[in-house]
Design goal:
alpha/beta; 2-enoyl-CoA Hydratase, Chain A, domain 1; OB fold (Dihydrolipoamide Acetyltransferase, E2P); 7-stranded mixed sheet; 15 helices; 17 strands; about 50% helix
């Protein structure tokens, strides 16, 4: 017994998705990569050699990145690591995600070390909160930190709301700095006045604890330092410790890619067009299935980004207008409206002053242009079909050129399209003259002289 084609396709898709999920789970269980090793001692090394976990953050602080940091802290704690080093380079991020990371760091029983690196890196906005929340803060040469003034992600703030947001984050920053014994005045200024300083200024102003050129130097510098963790004081013993890189798993990497504003935007548009083609060609199956998957992935990504819902509604309206254009004769009004709505919605969709959280014009323009081109092609074909003269039935005969085979007045015959037709006319027509069919009644045609 053969399965229906549609059911076979559906089962195949389910198996592919299940296989991808299993590969994701397997990838997450990979052993961490060792990046440095201690100098081999004269005797055999002890099995309980100290380890330091290291993660690298080179991205905005989004829910995916926050989850990665939180999981890394839990993993370091479970493994009994001497410390967790977070190598940080970030332009900022979302307030909610930053607060989750800060709360986890403040409540951690494993010492956290934030290292702003490599050279040229920065800890801006959300990065300032995370750096100051660490038990030990360090920076590489030619790096900078600061500019933590809050920005509203869902539109413009009025003066009262902005004041509330600034006061709230300033209090949070001051509390973090005081808890970690750092310069609370500078920390508050970073929020209120968006001040930014270099690594040498940060060290001088007691914003950070060390300036270290590399991880190895940092590990040596923090050896013997006593820090406060949630279970009490702990003295770090990092000399000769093994630094182990904890890489982001395949699942988190995939979600991180999807959460990129440009990727999320493209997935959303592909999802809408998949449904559009499925509705335009019922039974195609693949466009509908692919479109639904793209839409689900896009909506997951969008809930991690600062979305302006007016922009999202404009894009949905644009797709609805394009679909309506396929079924309603509007002479292009719906298509033009859809193109305008898509352009405006795309510009408004991600409402953030941070460039890393915005949709690139290099993505918006091609997407809107392709949508407009598709609309123009569809309308052009529809207009041609509408204007094209019918070639069958009565409409196909009307206006056709014929030859009179007899004299014609009230009765006669004409020859056209390889056939003889009975004909009549309101004026005398002689045999052999060229005539034009002006109407058809049953199997008889009415003709007139060709002028």
């Amino acid at each position: 017994m053969r399965l229906p084609i549609r059911l076979t396709v559906l089962i195949s898709l389910i198996l592919i998705i299940a296989g991808a999920f299993l590969l994701t789970v397997a990838a997450d269980t990979n052993e961490p990569k060792k990046i440095t090793k201690p100098e081999p001692p004269a005797a055999a090394p002890l099995p309980s050699a100290k380890k330091i976990h290291l993660i690298e953050i080179d991205a905005p602080i989004t829910p995916v990145v926050a989850e990665y940091i939180i999981k890394s802290i839990d993993r370091a704690s479970k493994a009994g690591a001497e410390a967790l080093i977070i190598q940080l380079n970030t332009p900022g991020g979302l307030v909610d995600s930053t607060q989750q990371v800060v709360m986890k760091m403040m409540a951690s029983n494993v010492p956290t070390v934030v290292y702003v690196a490599p050279s040229g890196a920065r800890a801006a906005s959300a990065g300032v909160f995370i750096t100051l929340a660490a038990n030990i803060a360090a920076m590489a040469p030619t790096t900078h930190i600061g500019a933590a003034h809050p920005v509203q992600m869902q539109g413009k703030m009025d003066e009262t709301m902005e004041k509330k947001a600034v006061n709230d984050l300033a209090a949070m920053m001051r509390g973090i700095a005081e808890k970690r014994g750092r310069n609370a005045k500078w920390a508050e200024d970073a929020v209120r006045q968006s001040v930014s300083i270099t690594e040498t200024e940060a060290l001088k102003n007691k914003v950070i604890d060390f300036v270290a050129p590399d991880i190895a130097s940092l590990v040596q510098a923090i050896d013997g330092k006593t820090v406060d963790v949630v279970i009490g004081k702990k003295t770090l013993k990092t000399a000769g410790a093994e630094v182990v890189m904890i890489k982001m798993g395949f699942r988190d990497k995939l979600l991180g890619i999807i959460s990129n504003p440009n990727i999320a935007y493209i997935l959303m548009i592909l999802g809408f067009y998949g449904l559009y083609f499925e509705l335009s060609n019922p039974g195609a199956i693949f466009p509908g299935v692919a479109g639904a998957i793209c839409l689900i992935l896009a909506f997951y990504a969008l809930q991690t980004l600062p979305i302006n819902y007016a922009g999202l509604m404009l894009i949905i309206l644009a797709i609805a207008l394009f679909i309506a254009e396929a079924f309603i004769t509007s002479h292009g009004v719906l298509g033009v409206g859809g193109t305008i709505a898509m352009l405006m919605g795309s510009v408004m969709l991600i409402d953030s002053p941070a460039p890393v959280l915005q949709i690139s014009w290099a993505v918006i323009i091609p997407v809107v242009a392709m949508s407009a081109i598709m609309f123009i092609i569809t309308v052009t074909i529809a207009v041609r079909v509408y204007r094209e003269k019918p070639t069958t039935g009565k409409e196909g005969l009307t206006g056709m050129l014929a030859t009179a085979k007899t004299d014609i007045l009230s009765d006669g015959q004409v020859f056209m399209r390889g056939e003889y037709w009975n004909a009549w006319s309101d004026e005398p027509i002689k045999k052999g003259e060229q005539v034009i069919v002006i109407s058809v009644e049953g199997l008889k045609v009415k003709v007139r002289k060709k002028t």
